[in-house]
Amino acid sequence: MTEHAEPATPGATTSNRTRKRRSARREQVLETAARMFFEKGYAATTTEDIGAELGLLKGSIYYYISAKEDLLFEIVERYHEDTRSYFERILASDESPLDKLRELITTETAHTATNLTRSSLFYTEWRSLSAERQQAIIAERARHEHAVLDWIREAQRAGTVRSDLDPKIATYAIFGMVNSAYRWFRPDGPRSAEEIGVEFCELVLGGLETR
Amino acid sequence: MTEHAEPATPGATTSNRTRKRRSARREQVLETAARMFFEKGYAATTTEDIGAELGLLKGSIYYYISAKEDLLFEIVERYHEDTRSYFERILASDESPLDKLRELITTETAHTATNLTRSSLFYTEWRSLSAERQQAIIAERARHEHAVLDWIREAQRAGTVRSDLDPKIATYAIFGMVNSAYRWFRPDGPRSAEEIGVEFCELVLGGLETR
Amino acid sequence: MTEHAEPATPGATTSNRTRKRRSARREQVLETAARMFFEKGYAATTTEDIGAELGLLKGSIYYYISAKEDLLFEIVERYHEDTRSYFERILASDESPLDKLRELITTETAHTATNLTRSSLFYTEWRSLSAERQQAIIAERARHEHAVLDWIREAQRAGTVRSDLDPKIATYAIFGMVNSAYRWFRPDGPRSAEEIGVEFCELVLGGLETR
Amino acid sequence: MTEHAEPATPGATTSNRTRKRRSARREQVLETAARMFFEKGYAATTTEDIGAELGLLKGSIYYYISAKEDLLFEIVERYHEDTRSYFERILASDESPLDKLRELITTETAHTATNLTRSSLFYTEWRSLSAERQQAIIAERARHEHAVLDWIREAQRAGTVRSDLDPKIATYAIFGMVNSAYRWFRPDGPRSAEEIGVEFCELVLGGLETR
DNA sequence: CATGAATGAGAATTCATTCAT
DNA sequence: CATGAATGAATTCTCATTCAT
User: HTH tetR-type domain: from which residue to which, for each copy (chains A, B, C, D) (predicted)?
Assistant: First the structure.
C-alpha cells in the first residue's frame, strides 16, 4: 500500500531493490489472475493455471500472494476504490441533482466498460469473497444507490424529474442498465466506453425528465 | 407418457401412484437445491448440504437425481423454457414493434421478479453448466436481443422511436435494466412484480419515444 | 441342497408350493447373474443391472439371494462340484495312469467348453470371493494337479511317458491348455466341445508319449 | 525429449536432475501399484492402499499419476510393448515356420515367467481398462495368434507338422499353455524361466511334429 | 412378492496451501 | 526466488444392502 520503506526496522533483510522487483512481479500475478478469473471464472481457475501462465509452479505464486482469495479481493478492491473515488467527487460537487445523476451515469458506465475484467469480477465473483469482504462491497453499493435515490427525489421536488415515477424503481433501473455494460462491451467495438455512457444517459434521462 | 399400466410385467413397472409420490419428492429436492444455490451459490452448496436440508444423507439424493449439475440445469432450464414461451408468443403477435417491445419489457421484468430464485441462477450460475448447455442459453439470449434490436429499428423507421439513438446500445440498456430485477426485487416489497414491469416500461419507453 | 421339505418345522409359514416357485425364480436370478458377470465382469455388474434384466428393482433380488457374492459363489461352486464329480470317478477307476490322464484331459476340456459361462467365472472371478471360498477352490485345484502329476510319474516309471520331461512342468502345461478353452471356445463354432477335448489329448499326449 | 535446458525461461522448466528424481519416484509408484494389483487385484486395491504402502496419503499419488486406470495401463502397456518387440523380430526372421514357432514359444513363455507381475495383470486385469485400451490389446493378441496359425499351416504343407491336426485348435492350445505360466511360475522355483520355455517347446512340438 | 426410499461406507479425484531445500 | 513434494480436507458419486409397507 505504502510506497515508503519502513525505517522502523533498519536491519530488515529485504532490500529496497528486492522489494521493488517483487512488487513488479506481484503486479503481473494480479494481472494474470484477473484475466484468467474473467475468462474461466474464479472457481474454475486453479493456482496451477495461474502459475503455468506465468511460467511458475503453483506453489511459487505464494511468494507473491498469501491466498487465492486475496487475489480476487485485491482485483475487486481496486475497482471498488476507483468507484468510490469518483463517487465521492460527484457527491461533493455543487451541481444540481440531475446533473450529478447525469455525471454518475456517464462516469460509471465508462468506468465499467473501461475496466472490463475488474468490473466483471466485481459484479460476478464477489460471492467468492469472505463474508466481511462481501459486506464491505454491499455497503458501498448501498451508498451509491441511496445517493441516486436522493438525487431523483430532489429532482422530483424541483420539478425536473417526472413525479409520477417511483424513485426507487428508477434507481434500480439506472444501476441495472449502467452495470450491465461489462456483459457485452468490447473495447474493439464501434463505440467507445465514453460514448456508451453518454448514450445511456440520454436514454434514461429521456425517460425521467419532465417534458 | 402412457396412462395405461402394462399388466404383462407387473413387477417391472413402477406404479402410477409411486411415480407421483417420487416425483413429488424430486420436486422438493429441486426446490431445496434451487433455494440453496440461490443463497450460497452453486459451487458453495455441496450435495451433503442439500441432503442435510432434506433430512437425507449426501448419497441419498442420487436416488432422485443423477448429477449435481443436472440439478442446476433443470432449475435453469425451466426458467429458460418459460422465457421462450412468452417470447415466441410476442414474436408471433401482430402488434406494432413498439407494442411488442412494451410487452416484452413488462412480461420479462415481471417474470424475472416472480421467479426470483430461478432467474437469479439463470443469470449468475450459467457458467457452472457444461459447455453445450451454456451454448443453448447463450443462443436463446441472442435471439431475444436480436428481436428487440429489430423492433427498435423498425420503430425508428416508422418514426415512433427517436432516430438519433443507437439501437444496439438501447437494446443492451433494456436488457440490463430488465434482467437486473433478480438482484433487488423482494416479493414482500411495496410493489408487485407486474408493477415493476410497467414502471420499467414507462421509463425506458419515455427515453426512446419520439416526443 | 436338499430336495426334501424339512418336517421338523411343521408349522412353517412357507408352503411347499411357494418354496418351489421361489426356487424356480431363484434359478432365473442365478442364470441371469451368471450371464451378466460373464459379459461385463463381476465388479462391473451391479445388483441394479441384474434386477433390471429380470424386471425387478435391485432391492427385490434380495428376496432370492442374501448377498451379491453368494451369487458368484453359487455359480462357481456348481462348476466346481461338477469338476469334482468326474474327477473322483476317474481317480477311482482302475485304468492305466495314461488312460486316466487321457480321460481327464478330454472330459475337463469338454466340460470347460460346455459350461462356458461358469468355467469362465470360475477361472477369472474367483478372486472376488471371500478368502475361505478362494481357499476351497485352490485346494481342489491342487488335488487335480497332484493327481495328474502322479499319473505322469507313474507312466514315466512304466515307460509309457518320456522320462526326460519334467512331470511338474508337463502338468502345468496340460492344465494351461485345457483350462484355456473358456477364452476362445464358442458353441456355434465348427468344432464341438468333445472334439476339442480329443484334439487337445492328441496334441499333448503326442508330446508326452514315448516314441 | 531435449537434453538442453531452456535458459530463456529458467523458472518455467523443471531441471534435469529434478526430472530424474521425480521419475524415479514415479517408477516406485508404478512398481508398488503393480505388486499390489497382482496381490489383491486391481479393483480391490484402492489409491489409499497404494499411498499407504509408499508412505503417502491417497491424494498424494496424484502428484505422479493422473488416474488409477493409467497406473494399470502403463504396467500392462510395458508388458505389451515388450511382447510386440520380440514378436516383430521373430516375424521378420527368415527361419522356417517351425523354428519361428519354437522361438515364439520359448521366448513368450520365458517372458511371461520373467515378468510375473506384469504378465499376470496383462492376462487377468485387462478388463478393467477402458474400451479402446482393451481393443488395442485384443488386436495385438489376434495378430500373434494369426501368425502362429499361419506358421502351423505352412509347416503342415511342408510336411513338418502332422496334417491331421486342426491348426486352429493347436494354436489355441499353444497359447493356453504358454500364457498360463504366470499362474504358477515362481522365480525361486527349481527351474528358470528359460528352462520352462524349452520344456514347453519340447512338449508341444513333440505333439505337433510328424514322426 | 415386490417396491420405494433410504443408508452408510467407501472410492477416486481435486486443489489450495505449506515448507524444506 | 522457485521448486518439488507432500498434505489434508473436501467433494462428487457409487452401490450393496435393509426394511417398512
Answer: 23-83
Give the distance, in angstroms, between residue C55 CA and nucleotide E3 C1': 12
Kindly state whether residues D105 and D62 are assigned to the same domain: no
**pLDDT score of C195:** 94
**Same domain (yes/no): A82, A62:** no
Neighbours of chain C (3+ CB pairs under 8 A): B, D
SS3 B150: helix
Contact D96, D151 (CB under 8 A): no
Strand E–CB C15 distance below 7 A: no
pLDDT band, very low/low/confident/very high, at C1 (cuts 50, 70, 90): very low
In a domain, B2, yes or no: no
Domain hosting C116: range is: 70-208
Q: So what's the pLDDT on residue D71?
A: 95
Q: What is the pLDDT of residue C2?
A: 40
Rounded CA separation B34/A120 (Å):
24
Q: Do B58 and B48 touch, CB atoms closer than 8 A?
A: yes
Position D121 pLDDT exceeds 90: yes
Total domains in the fold of chain C? 2
Contact A207 B204 (CB under 8 A): yes
CATH number of residue A163's parent domain: 1.10.357.10
CA distances from C145 to C179, C194, D178 (A): 12, 22, 17
- Is A2 a member of any domain? no
Going by C-alpha positions, the residue among A163, C177, A186 that lies closest to residue D203 is C177
pLDDT band at A210 (very low <50, low <70, confident <90, very high): confident
- Choice between A207 and C168, residue whose per-residue pLDDT is larger: C168
Chain B neighbors of C25, CB-CB under 8 A: none
CB atoms within 10 A of CB A162: 18
Q: Work out the number of other CB atoms within 10 angstroms of the CB of residue D205.
A: 18
Residue D81 to chain C, least CA–CA distance (Å): 22
Q: Which residue shows C-alpha cell 502351423?
A: D152
